Amino acid sequence: MLYIEDLVKCYGKFTAVDHLSLEVGEGEIFGFIGPNGAGKTTTMKIVATLLSPTSGNVLVDGIDVVENPVAVRGKIGYMPDFFGVYDNLKVTEYLDFYGSSYGIPSGERKEICKNLLKLVHLEGKEDIYVDTLSRGMKQRLCLARSLIHNPDLLILDEPASGMDPRARIEMMGILKQLKSMGKTIIISSHILHELTELCDVVGVIEDGRLVAHGSVDDIMARVKGRKALTIKMLGSVERAVNILKQQPVVHGVIAEGNTLELSYDCGDDELWKIIKVLVDEGIPVISFTKGENNLEKVFLEVTYGYEAK
Ligand SMILES: Nc1ncnc2c1ncn2[C@@H]1O[C@H](COP(=O)(O)OP(=O)(O)O)[C@@H](O)[C@H]1O
Ligand SMILES: [Mg+2]
Question: What distance in angstroms lies between residue 44's CA and the mean position of ligand 2's atoms?
Fold first, then answer.
């Protein structure tokens, strides 16, 4: 459904997307994960025909986004990361406007809008002014708008960002429903666990490059069983890092100031040995805290092969 080959996008001398290739199959949900500034929005805007690539090929259902953007637009629904301001526009007027821009006959629009508002849990809000909706509602309305012409591929740029946990769960529920309707979805987030439940495949992007790509199950299997530990010490952490790296139960160490983040995979009956070896070596440990299973950090270590700096 989506095919990206060797995509490059430069803004002046700056390379925002750097030889990125990926494929998303029909009906698949692809999670695009990466920190802010990684190049997610740029990539998605190119797929959405809103930006032209510097080089590379992007095909949506076999159609080239550069050669035939109009045909591509009919197949995709794009939800941007930024929701504009819509003075004096009611919810139904807003959807109706987008419906007419897509050339949907006015006789059909009413029914489509009604169904979409139901899908995104906004029934009963038809006559509310868009600007007075809560952020979560606005984002759901924006999702409804991207669905108005019944596209096959949805490009959702951080659809759950800035939402409270409840609104987030609601959004994820709607996306699951779209998945069950057979839509192909590419969804970005800088939060991994937000996507693991929903997505079949995830790609991790950093500095414009795809640094990891695989099924959620594969990546979770690599992460499984690993736990996180935070150790603080006085002074330099360098020697502690070298000692810890030699411990077989320690998989990765990330140093930040005088704090170390560890991923390890032993039980509590062996955990004390980690602190003992540090203390025996004269490292001035001042705190030692077991993290909740900090999937984010462990994941970073697995995918990026993080080494202590
Ligand atoms: N119009 C632009 N002009 C110059 N640089 C840009 C522009 N848009 C984005 N960038 C830069 O490109 C990089 C990728 O941005 P973006 O695609 O928005 O990343 P993400 O969505 O992953 O946060 C960032 O370093 C950003 O500052
Ligand atoms: Mg972005």
Answer: 9
Domain ranges in the chain with CATH number 3.30.70.100: 225-304
The reply to whether CATH 3.40.190.10 applies to domain 225-304 is no
- Whole-number Å distance, alpha carbon 207 to ligand 2 midpoint, is 12
42 within ligand 1 shell (Cβ under 6 A): yes
Token pair recorded at residue 96: 């109706």
Cα(37) to centroid(ligand 1), Å: 5
- Report residue 162's pLDDT band, with 50, 70 and 90 as the boundaries: confident
Intervals of CATH 3.40.50.300 along the chain = 2-221
Q: Domain 2-221 belongs to what topology?
A: Rossmann fold (3.40.50)
| Assigned token pair, 192 | 């991994």
Q: pTM for the complete prediction?
A: 0.77
Query: Is the separation of the CB atoms in 100 and 108 below 8 Å?
Result: no
Amino acid identity for residue 260 in this structure = L
pLDDT digits 0-9 by tens, 183-241: 999 999 877 777 878 898 988 888 899 877 888 777 666 666 667 788 999 988 999 99
